[in-house]
Amino acid sequence: MSIQPQTDRVIIFDTTLRDGEQSPGATLNVEEKLAIAHQLALLGVDVIEAGFAAASPGDFAAVKTIAQEVGVSGGPIICSLARATRQDIQAAAQAVQYAAHPRIHTMISTSDIHLKYQLRKSREEVLAIAKEMVAYAKSFVDDVEFSPMDASRTDPEFLYQVLEVAIASGATTINIPDTVGYCTPKEMAMLIQGIREHVSNFDNVILSVHTQNDLGLATANALAALENGVRQVECTINGIGERAGNAALEEIVMALQVRKPYFNPYFNRPVDSEAPLTNIKTQEIYKTSCLVSQLTGMQVQANKAIVGANAFAHESGIHQDGILKHRQTYEIMEAASIGLPENRIVLGKHSGRNAFRTRLQELGFQLSEADLNKAFSRFKEVADKKKEMSDWDLEAIVRDETQIQVENAFQIEHIQVICGDSTYPSATITVVTPERQILTVASVGTGPVDAVYQAINQLVKIPNQLIEFSVQSVTGGIDALGTVTVRAQHQERIFSGQASDTDIVVAAAYAYMNALNRLYRYLQQSEPTVSADFATTVH
Ligand SMILES: CC(=O)SCCNC(=O)CCNC(=O)[C@H](O)C(C)(C)COP(=O)(O)OP(=O)(O)OC[C@H]1O[C@@H](n2cnc3c(N)ncnc32)[C@H](O)[C@@H]1OP(=O)(O)O
Ligand SMILES: CC(C)C(=O)C(=O)O
Ligand SMILES: [Mg+2]
């Protein structure tokens, strides 16, 4: 693959394996780098900056292996970074030489602050080094990229001088780094315009930009550069990189895709041109993001644009309602376009009836309007305590709210439990009897559930034996709903009860009361006089 200067599309230069790996803690071994490089090739990046060959034997091996195995004919350009020193350039050349399309990327700082304090060199010395080292890199490969480090804080006049010299010495790509993420988009636009106006020989090279994210402006700055004639962007998957990271590949690519009519004119294309602006197979984005996150250990924040867990998730009722009626009301791109199977409607405290009903229908529940309303109120109560409601939670709620309720039965009004390792577990329960009496009692027990059951037994004196008690967490996580199932035996008959709550003691109380109410209903039907006694006994 050869890339022509000032191409009418964007060259995607991926530096996940070089600048991305500079994220503290993100170090990758050779196998891991190779796995990511294979995926980057599938994603369709034009250039892979595979590492900094002079940095360590491991990085040399990684660049070499990637050059051999991924840099095949028809594959991406494989590049290594090198300081403007003979040693670094030699290492880079030796590592990338196996690629069908090798590139050496050499750089030297140009800002006064870097010259004075880091390099401790004069402008004349830096100019001479740039000239000599670009030519030296060119002696190994045709494809040489040059970066004036800290370009955005460099005196423009000196920057133009350095760039002219680098181009004259054979650089084929000129990369403008905003090394410390200092630029604003307007300043970036002016910087690029200045270079295009003042560097006489730049028409023969590809102009590139490398934006860091220290002020959260990396993507905005990269796009501003593209609007002003830059044709290569340097970026990383998930935006990882030194300090606050680099421009995120997925953000740039999807911005160009989603806003194609906006960007087309900057590439001399008709507004409505359908042709893609990059070679990226966007359906591979999500997979690549997951692989990079997994291997670097750098988690993607949930609200990260494009690849964050919430990027295609909708929680609020108004948005969910809109999405269910017409997806584009609240989505500017489809989940499938980045390789996610579908968007997500997340049920939580902000959800509305439409989303709730739709999810229940998908789960196979056809509820009457009355049952739906009952279930929805319970759903809101539980959602107030839980971050996200799972399908299991919904099933538990529907089961609780739609199971046949015993009319005129005992109802729990209030539960309070005290327990701990240095106190007797005790429970205070208020129950409304079938005769509408409100009764309160306190009791101690061997544990909080036992205390609750002792208290209920004092109020509802229906003889029974608890023969089974089980708790099940229906969802994962600390805020899971717990479902309690109890079986109570009266003479030969067994009555079961079940209830769910984020508080398992509360669920236990309701489950037991549920079983007792069934037993009470049975007694009402089979022994009306006996049941009347239970209902009116005051304690
Ligand atoms: C903005 C960026 O992301 S630039 C890339 C940053 N990435 C890395 O640094 C990762 C790889 N780096 C390394 O492994 C090491 O720093 C090495 C192998 C490159 C150099 O290690 P050391 O020789 O021990 O030098 P050290 O890292 O302490 O200091 C850097 C030296 O390079 C010099 N230097 C920095 N940039 C350049 C440059 N572009 N060209 C030439 N010399 C440079 C510094 O002035 C300093 O020289 P000094 O020791 O004479 O003062
Ligand atoms: C090596 C250069 C391009 C770099 O990473 C930077 O300046 O941020
Ligand atoms: Mg950088």
Automatic annotation (TrEMBL):
<dbReference type="InterPro" id="IPR000891">
    <property type="entry name" value="PYR_CT"/>
</dbReference>
<protein>
    <recommendedName>
        <fullName>2-isopropylmalate synthase</fullName>
        <ecNumber>2.3.3.13</ecNumber>
    </recommendedName>
</protein>
<keyword id="KW-0432">Leucine biosynthesis</keyword>
<dbReference type="InterPro" id="IPR050073">
    <property type="entry name" value="2-IPM_HCS-like"/>
</dbReference>
<comment type="pathway">
    <text>Amino-acid biosynthesis; L-leucine biosynthesis; L-leucine from 3-methyl-2-oxobutanoate: step 1/4.</text>
</comment>
<comment type="similarity">
    <text>Belongs to the alpha-IPM synthase/homocitrate synthase family. LeuA type 1 subfamily.</text>
</comment>
<keyword id="KW-0479">Metal-binding</keyword>
<dbReference type="InterPro" id="IPR005671">
    <property type="entry name" value="LeuA_bact_synth"/>
</dbReference>
<dbReference type="Pfam" id="PF08502">
    <property type="entry name" value="LeuA_dimer"/>
</dbReference>
<dbReference type="GO" id="GO:0009098">
    <property type="term" value="P:L-leucine biosynthetic process"/>
</dbReference>
<feature type="domain" description="Pyruvate carboxyltransferase">
    <location>
        <begin position="10"/>
        <end position="277"/>
    </location>
</feature>
<dbReference type="GO" id="GO:0046872">
    <property type="term" value="F:metal ion binding"/>
</dbReference>
<keyword id="KW-0808">Transferase</keyword>
<comment type="function">
    <text>Catalyzes the condensation of the acetyl group of acetyl-CoA with 3-methyl-2-oxobutanoate (2-ketoisovalerate) to form 3-carboxy-3-hydroxy-4-methylpentanoate (2-isopropylmalate).</text>
</comment>
<feature type="region of interest" description="Regulatory domain">
    <location>
        <begin position="411"/>
        <end position="539"/>
    </location>
</feature>
<dbReference type="GO" id="GO:0003852">
    <property type="term" value="F:2-isopropylmalate synthase activity"/>
</dbReference>
<dbReference type="Pfam" id="PF22617">
    <property type="entry name" value="HCS_D2"/>
</dbReference>
<dbReference type="Pfam" id="PF00682">
    <property type="entry name" value="HMGL-like"/>
</dbReference>
<keyword id="KW-0464">Manganese</keyword>
<keyword id="KW-0963">Cytoplasm</keyword>
<dbReference type="GO" id="GO:0005737">
    <property type="term" value="C:cytoplasm"/>
</dbReference>
<dbReference type="InterPro" id="IPR054691">
    <property type="entry name" value="LeuA/HCS_post-cat"/>
</dbReference>
<dbReference type="GO" id="GO:0004410">
    <property type="term" value="F:homocitrate synthase activity"/>
</dbReference>
<dbReference type="InterPro" id="IPR002034">
    <property type="entry name" value="AIPM/Hcit_synth_CS"/>
</dbReference>
<dbReference type="GO" id="GO:0003985">
    <property type="term" value="F:acetyl-CoA C-acetyltransferase activity"/>
</dbReference>
<keyword id="KW-0012">Acyltransferase</keyword>
<keyword id="KW-0028">Amino-acid biosynthesis</keyword>
<comment type="subunit">
    <text>Homodimer.</text>
</comment>
<dbReference type="InterPro" id="IPR036230">
    <property type="entry name" value="LeuA_allosteric_dom_sf"/>
</dbReference>
<dbReference type="InterPro" id="IPR013785">
    <property type="entry name" value="Aldolase_TIM"/>
</dbReference>
<comment type="function">
    <text>This protein is a Fe-Mo-cofactor biosynthetic component.</text>
</comment>
<dbReference type="InterPro" id="IPR013709">
    <property type="entry name" value="2-isopropylmalate_synth_dimer"/>
</dbReference>
<keyword id="KW-0100">Branched-chain amino acid biosynthesis</keyword>
